[in-house]
Amino acid sequence: SQQGEEDPQALSIQEGENATMNCSYKTSINNLQWYRQNSGRGLVHLILIRSNEREKHSGRLRVTLDTSKKSSSLLITASRAADTASYFCATGRSFGNEKLTFGTGTRLTIIP
Amino acid sequence: DAMVIQNPRYQVTQFGKPVTLSCSQTLNHNVMYWYQQKSSQAPKLLFHYYDKDFNNEADTPDNFQSRRPNTSFCFLDIRSPGLGDAAMYLCATSRQGASTGELFFGEGSRLTVL
Predict the structure, then answer these.
(1) H-helix or E-strand containing A37?
(2) Where do the domains of chain B lie, and which CATH numbers do they carry?
(3) How is domain A4-97+104-111 classified at the architecture level of CATH?
């Protein structure tokens, strides 16, 4: 069953603006991961944040995690046309349960 | 160099005609996953292997089977494809599983059922 919901489902912004996507999940987690998927392609891992971390950065990406609210956000700064893709959050649960369960995804379009 | 390779990239089959999709990895990862992704939806886990241990999802239809003959290869068999099985099938690997690290995905196999 779906673990997470993402908000918004679709987002269109001008190139150079920042994009923020939100993810909510239902159960306890070991980590939360964000993936990117270009149309018709496989998923590419972007960033992993562990349950004891609150914020993580990687290049133009910033991820926050609030385990008390069971939510996470992904911020992409200074967006580029090449950032156009679908973005999924996914949750990793406890050791021994090695499933990765995906949220519903956000379709991001960057307008040049 | 591609690390998770799926074949074929595109597969067309007829209603009820068995299909096998393959996945190979050069990462020597312990865990291999098969996901089904329908248009504009999230990937849905069908099953995964931790080494040779097979873990089936409760809602995966019996029509879907899998084999992992060795560390490098994993196969998805669809015994009698229906129109509802048309989707992208994604293979992924992980060193020790999602509880500790990320997944590496192949480019997917897109299945069309006529």
Answers:
(1) strand A31-37
(2) 4-113 (2.60.40.10)
(3) Sandwich (2.60)
Partner-chain contact B105 A93, CB within 8 Å: no
Write out chain B residues lying below 8 Å of A97, CB-based. Answer: 99
Q: Which of A99, A104, A107 to mutate to test the interface with B (most CBs of B within 10 A)?
A: A99
pLDDT per residue as tens digits for the range B63-72: 999 999 999 9
Of A88, A100, A107, the CB nearest to B98: A100
pLDDT at residue B77 in the model = 98
pLDDT band at A63 (very low <50, low <70, confident <90, very high): very high
Look at residues A22, A26, A4, A1 and name the one whose alpha carbon lies nearest to residue A103: A4
Q: Nearest-CA neighbor of B13 among B82, B90, B61?
A: B82
